[in-house]
Design brief:
Elements: E1 4-7, H1 15-25, H2 33-44, E2 51-56, E3 59-74, E4 80-93, H3 102-117, E5 121-125, E6 138-139, E7 142-148, E8 164-168, H4 170-185, H5 198-203, E9 218-224, E10 227-238, E11 247-256, H6 259-270, E12 275-283, E13 299-306, E14 308-312, H7 315-321, E15 328-335, E16 345-351, E17 356-360, E18 367-370, H8 371-378, H9 384-387, E19 393-395, H10 400-408
Parallel strand pairs: 4-5, 11-12, 15-18
Antiparallel strand pairs: 1-2, 2-3, 3-4, 5-14, 6-14, 7-12, 7-13, 8-9, 9-10, 10-11, 15-16, 16-17, 18-19
Helix pairs in contact: 1-2
The structure holds coenzyme A.
Residues 25, 91-93, 98-104, 126-128, 130-131, 134 line the site of coenzyme A.
Length: 420
């Protein structure tokens, strides 16, 4: 252990060798053009204080970074509210130094830093399920993948009466995309924002070069009665043949700030000639398109995965920040045996129609609940009763779990459209 130094902050001069270490662990090619583009992008948005690494014999062997990202939590009557959270990314420990506690050292420090900054919770997307539970993270949202087979019926999807889809260059998309996304993300709980240079980086503008892993995408905007309200891009993944074999496309992004935009973007996709399959990844588990299709089975559910993992760092702040589906009062005894133990304590939660207050208490508890179970329930993605089988939920007052589930519920499944 002594030959490994955990470093924080990491100066921007180190971006290239730090990312080269990450590339080894994430199986990417440090000689590739894409890697050089990533180095340029990271150099321009580098937060030394929020960046960790570990060095052994002068070489980077581990990486970890966090960002402040805005996450939507439930607001009153189906609306959402913004909370600035700690978002963990770029976690790697080279196999030469694995299982020697390097991740534990870096993440213990970064969670303490998030707690000190006052961020009420931390989020991440896990490469593998078993890594992050010991740090208190638990799955809070899910994503689905689908394939739409548009040729199953000619009348699969009719467009809305207003609105139109037009193809645009990336620079034209950039003029409207941030605003459209900002409105759209507020329609769902669990959305992580796309801050700073996210759009120019993604679109290859302002001196950024695009980072595409397959064909370059085609970009589209939907104009509604009040201006742009939808953004779409897709790339071809299989060519069509003259013998009638149909091609395939993959949708990289479909953002709709209105129901019309949503319907029209899908109607446009379903109407593209010469393709038989449209792959949709990182979509909500309750994708509404099914209800608009003349044959709902033209949409095949191809995958379901845990997505945002959440770790509560400040229970009163996190629980007071969201609204609840029903008014109610609960006393929660939160058990937090994971690294940091930041959520442990007993708290009252008082929720009315439009406000909520959570604070420490010494009253007797209605529910004894693990921090992880509370984290999985916090955005409405999972119920306590679903999780009770795992033993992290103990009812001390009869019916308390059902009451809590009714309060924490959201009408739509939480969904995050943005990788980080
Ligand atoms: C996952 C990874 C960061 C772990 O780093 P590490 O320094 O080996 O982790 P630590 O030594 O601090 O491990 C702490 C504990 O977690 C366990 N653990 C760590 N990674 C694990 C994994 N992938 N599966 C199961 N257990 C794991 C360790 O066994 C250890 O348990 P112990 O204390 O009971 O012995 C590293 O293996 C890695 O970079 N993997 C490939 C890239 C990746 O998956 N990154 C995560 C991106 S979200």
């Amino acid at each position: 252990m002594t030959d490994i130094d955990v470093v924080n902050p990491v100066p921007v001069d180190e971006v290239q060798p730090w990312l080269a270490s990450m590339a080894t662990t994430f199986l990417s090619d440090p000689e590739s053009d894409i890697f050089q583009r990533q180095v340029e992008a990271w150099r321009r948005e580098w937060y030394p204080d929020r960046t960790w690494g570990a060095r052994a014999h002068g070489r980077w062997v581990a990486t970890l970074a966090t960002e402040a990202r805005t996450v939507t939590v439930p607001g009153p009557e189906g609306t959402t509210r913004d909370v600035v959270a700690d978002a963990l990314t770029a976690v790697t420990v080279n196999a030469t130094h694995r299982r020697r506690g390097v991740l534990t050292r870096m993440l213990t420090e970064s969670l303490a830093a998030a707690k000190n900054r006052g961020e009420p919770f931390s989020v991440l997307i896990a490469a593998e399920w078993p890594i992050y539970g010991r740090f208190g993270y638990a799955p809070a949202t899910q994503v689905s993948s689908y394939t739409l087979f548009p040729r199953l019926r000619p009348d699969l999807l009719t467009p809305a009466e207003t609105g139109r889809v037009r193809q645009v260059d990336p620079s034209d998309l950039d003029k409207v995309a941030a605003d459209v996304f900002d409105r759209a993300r507020r329609l769902r709980v669990g959305q992580v924002d796309r801050p700073g240079a996210w759009w120019p980086r993604r679109l290859g503008l302002d001196g950024y070069r695009p980072i595409n892993h397959g064909n370059a995408p085609n970009y589209f905007v939907h104009d509604g009665p009040d201006g742009p309200d939808g953004v779409l891009w897709w790339a071809a993944t299989r060519d069509f043949e003259l013998n009638g074999d149909l091609g395939a496309i993959s949708v990289g992004n479909l953002t709709a700030a209105s129901d019309h935009a949503y319907r029209n973007l899908f109607a446009y996709l379903a109407g593209i000639d010469v393709i038989g399959e449209i792959a949709l990844d990182r979509r909500p588990v309750d994708e509404p398109i099914q209800w608009l299709l003349s044959d709902g089975r033209a949409l095949r559910h191809t995958g379901l995965l845990d997505d945002v993992w959440l770790r509560l760092l400040d229970v009163p702040a996190a629980l007071s920040a969201r609204a609840y589906a029903r008014p109610g009062r609960l006393v929660l005894d939160v058990v937090d045996a994971d690294i940091g133990g930041y959520a442990a304590g007993r708290y009252t939660l008082d929720a009315t129609e439009d406000s909520a207050e959570c604070r420490p208490t010494s009253e007797s508890a209605d529910l004894r609940i693990s921090q992880r179970a509370l984290a999985s329930t916090y955005l409405g993605g999972f119920t306590l009763r679903q999780q009770a089988i795992a033993g992290g939920v103990e009812e001390l007052t009869a019916g308390a779990a059902a009451r809590a589930d009714a309060m924490f519920a959201t009408a739509l499944a939480p969904w995050n459209a943005t990788g980080f």
